[in-house]
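Exercise 7. Given the encoded structure of a 360-residue chain, write a plausible sequence.
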């Protein structure tokens, strides 16, 4: 038996409970978690913004050590350190055939499976976003793990599984920030902090961080922000003032609110690019008129998982870590146990801190 944070129903509080994990079956591996990041997507799953089969063990950003492998698994062995990949590509759907593995139609099929049972009453449990990282150990498909690159501490490697791939990918793959361009990043949470570092790595000449909390300025500047704006009704105007009245070349929205998406769009120059990373609800309606779409010539793009291919991008990120360009620890503002996850959710709702990291 292992301890896990169980979501009994959508909208219900998480419960710390013991669960029974089966031995890994064919094509599966069992992983002992070293750390798991608390992502805003976990909050969105728990409150129903995103759908998840319940009861479930959430958590999709994690790293740990393989303790057992099932039949047919030959590329992994007990003792291997791995990063969890919550969205493994199938390699056969239309998106995968186009090389757009982040849009794989079958990536989340495993989330509907029963992977464990609650020890107290035998209730079936589903693995939230495939990997169920909010637990001391988990059993996942072998294609849901990737080797931890050399030179990356195992605990910090958890952040590679979502926040860093998403924030870095939003800047480098979706927005394709070029040397000397100006960038605004909306939302200084875990993904936003990764995006700020990515913009610095890309050589952006001005990096404006935007958040509702004045307390996050030091955190943002430490990640690479050259300027800091506290979100208000005048945010777009302030950003244009910082950029010779033109607006930034690129805005990266990491919040998922209609008002923030609209402001990010408004803060870009004519012909600028806005990449939306934040996940909002269906009720968040963003409105544009036809004339402004023509006049401003801006691009608005959605961004899933940073448009990243983990197998391709993890070695690149590791090289940035080894060279000192990417500081994974700088994303973490709190290290907690399983019991601290509900408080971490509350902090996210209140706009406090960066990434909370569950350390086992």
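Solution.
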């Amino acid at each position: 038996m292992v301890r896990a944070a169980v979501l009994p129903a959508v909208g219900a509080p998480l419960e710390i409970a013991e669960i029974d994990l089966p031995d890994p079956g064919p094509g599966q591996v069992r992983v002992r978690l070293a750390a798991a990041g608390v992502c805003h997507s976990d909050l969105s799953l728990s409150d129903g913004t995103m759908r998840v089969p319940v009861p479930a063990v959430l958590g999709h950003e994690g790293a740990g050590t393989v303790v057992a492998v099932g039949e047919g698994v030959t590329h992994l062995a007990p003792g291997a350190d791995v990063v969890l990949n919550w969205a493994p590509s199938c390699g056969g759907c239309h998106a995968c055939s186009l090389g757009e593995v982040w849009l794989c139609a079958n990536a989340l099929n495993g989330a509907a499976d029963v992977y464990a049972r609650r020890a107290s009453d035998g209730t079936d449990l589903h693995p939230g976003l495939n990997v169920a990282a909010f637990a001391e150990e988990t059993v996942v498909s072998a294609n849901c793990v990737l080797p931890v690159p050399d030179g990356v501490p195992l605990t910090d490697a958890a952040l590679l599984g979502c926040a860093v791939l998403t924030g870095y990918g939003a800047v480098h793959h979706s927005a394709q920030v070029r040397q000397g361009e100006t960038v605004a990043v909306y939302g200084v949470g875990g993904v936003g902090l990764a995006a700020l570092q990515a913009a610095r790595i890309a050589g952006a000449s001005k990096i404006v961080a935007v958040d509702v909390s004045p307390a996050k300025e030091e955190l943002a500047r430490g990640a690479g922000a050259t300027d800091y704006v506290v979100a208000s009704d005048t945010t777009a105007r302030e950003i244009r003032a910082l950029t010779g009245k033109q607006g930034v070349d690129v805005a990266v929205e990491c919040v998922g609110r209609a008002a923030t998406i609209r402001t990010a769009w408004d803060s870009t120059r004519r012909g600028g690019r806005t990449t939306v990373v934040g996940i909002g609800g269906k009720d968040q309606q963003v409105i544009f008129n036809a004339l402004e779409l023509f006049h401003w010539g801006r691009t608005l793009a959605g961004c899933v998982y940073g448009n990243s291919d983990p197998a391709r991008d993890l070695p690149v990120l590791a090289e940035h870590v080894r060279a000192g360009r990417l500081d994974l620890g700088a994303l973490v503002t709190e290290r907690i146990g399983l019991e601290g996850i509900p408080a971490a959710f509350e902090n996210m709702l209140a706009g406090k801190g960066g990434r909370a990291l569950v350390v086992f």
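Remark. The longest helix spans residues 190-202. Students should compare their own answers with the one above.
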